[in-house]
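Quarterly update from the structural biology core.
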Amino acid sequence: FYDNLYSETAHDPTAQHEDTKITIRRDDVFNSSCSQINSTNVEDLRKNFVISFEGDQGIGAGVRREWFNILTNEMLNEDYALFTHSNDGMTFQPSHISDVQE
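Predicted structure, tokenized:
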């Protein structure tokens, strides 16, 4: 699995690995994240993400964790209709009314 996931340079300890820098608008995390990720090529998506919020100076793991937490909450937001609670009420499943399902 992992051999197919990464290119040959991923296994080369001398290879230079650049981070993928993504700048997100804090006032529209979901749409801004989708736009940035969709405009990033596949090879760059396999790299380490360096997330920053427009106008903020913070960078690093804490900012990435904050972004992921906000984005996850937004993805589960019922207004987007991407996911719905499953019958057990403890998990989520793709919503049948989502445009993504088409």
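The beta strands are 20-24, 49-53, 83-85, 92-94.
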